[in-house]
Specification:
Layout (H helix, E strand, L loop, with lengths): L29 H7 L14 E17 L2 E4 L5 E6 L6 E2 L4 E5 L2 H36 L5 H34 L1 E3 L4 E3 L9 E2 L8 E4 L4 E8 L3 H6 L6 E6 L7 E8 L9 E8 L11 E16 L8
Antiparallel strand pairs: 1-10, 1-14, 2-9, 3-5, 3-8, 4-7, 5-6, 7-9, 10-13, 11-12, 11-14, 12-13
Helix pairs in contact: 2-3
Length: about 300
């Protein structure tokens, strides 16, 4: 039994039935053929059985693929780029090491801050011993009240110095951690903007590499505002969206509608939608144009015929 092929682009287009019949040239008589030098061959006719089925109502649009996340990797410290740990265009995972910047300045700053804290801690221990001794002596007037107060002031000053030392240690450790740049998200790397041995500067805004998250990925497209009510009526359902690379064709990727903009564009009378695709095979690429098809309704009990039985 022939298979019916249905293509519905808007909700107002209804299926139709076309019945075709064949009339052979022999029924016209042989004398006419002789007078015209031969009649045209019979027209081939394909017969198909009409069936009743549910017809999907679809909307088509041109969309563009967008990464879920687009991250520009920049350096937070200055120094020589010692090593690049990936290749251009390579897929990376979140937390993977991308660059190593010379850590020696940060290591030296950390060691200096730790040494300063050790020195101040030793001085604090001595100052606290003095306070304890002066507390006994001041009662017997062996030391003046001013000396006792000065010893307490020294203790307070050293405690503040140790707190500052700890802050310097934390800052040095942070700078040391910044010497190793890791991927904040998983995705595919782009063009490498620096090379090993280059000097990078913090705060200059220079992008070292860009990462596009491609699995999963978005496809954004706009549809006429007239069909928005039909979409909103089904937004609680998992509305399927099929995206096929424009012009090249091929097998379409199947995704789910995940975003409806909160307003209609008054200039174009369209509303922006986004669908999310797993894209495990990375058949969809950021920036790529795609033909999008989305089923917005279904019309039951429609009579349809096989496409081969429809002749023009």
């Amino acid at each position: 039994m022939p298979v019916a092929t249905i293509s519905t682009r808007t909700s107002t287009r209804l299926p139709f039935v076309l019945l075709a019949f064949a009339v052979t040239a022999g029924a016209c008589g042989g004398s006419a053929a002789k007078g015209t030098g031969g009649a045209p061959p019979p027209v081939p006719v394909t017969l198909g059985r009409a069936t009743v089925t549910t017809v999907p109502v679809t909307v088509r649009a041109v969309g563009q693929v967008e990464p879920i996340a687009n991250v520009a990797v920049r350096s937070r410290v200055s120094g020589e780029l010692q090593q690049v740990h990936f290749s251009e265009g390579q897929s990376v995972h979140a937390g993977q090491v991308l660059f190593t910047i010379d850590p020696r300045p940060a290591q030296a700053a950390l060691a200096q801050a730790e040494a300063q804290r050790a020195r101040d801690s030793a001085a604090l221990a001595q100052a606290e011993t003095d306070v304890a001794r002066y507390a006994r002596l001041v009662a017997d007037d062996f030391v003046t009240r001013q000396q006792f107060d000065q010893a307490n002031t020294t203790v307070a000053t050293l405690k503040a110095a140790i707190a500052a030392d700890q802050a310097a240690i934390d800052s040095a450790r942070l700078q040391l951690a910044y010497s190793t740049l890791v991927a904040p998200v998983g995705g595919r790397t782009g063009n490498l903007m620096v090379k090993q041995g280059n000097l990078v500067q913090s705060g200059d805004g220079k992008v070292l590499v860009t990462i596009n998250q491609t699995r999963p990925i978005y496809a954004s497209f706009a549809v006429p505002a007239q069909i928005l009510p039909a979409i909103l009526a089904r937004r609680s359902d998992r509305m399927t969206v099929v995206a096929t690379p424009a012009q090249t064709g091929g097998v379409g990727a199947e995704g789910i509608l995940t975003f409806i903009d909160n307003s209609v564009d008054s200039a174009t009378s369209t509303v922006l939608l986004k669908a999310t695709f797993a894209n495990q095979d990375e058949s969809l690429w950021p920036g790529q144009f795609v033909d999008v098809m989305m089923t917005i309704a279904e019309e039951p009990n429609r009579v349809v015929v096989p496409a081969g039985a429809v002749q023009t």
